[in-house]
Amino acid sequence: MQSRLTYLLIALSLLAAMAIFAFTNPSYEKAFEARWHYFMGNYDEAYEIAKEAYELDNYNRMAFTVMRQTEVAKKYLDYIREGERYLALIEDVANHPPIGEADRVRIKLMCEVMIGKYEKLSPTKLTDKELVERARQIYKKFEDLYTTLFKQK
Question: Hey, which bits of 16-114 come out as E strands?
Answer without folding.
Answer: none
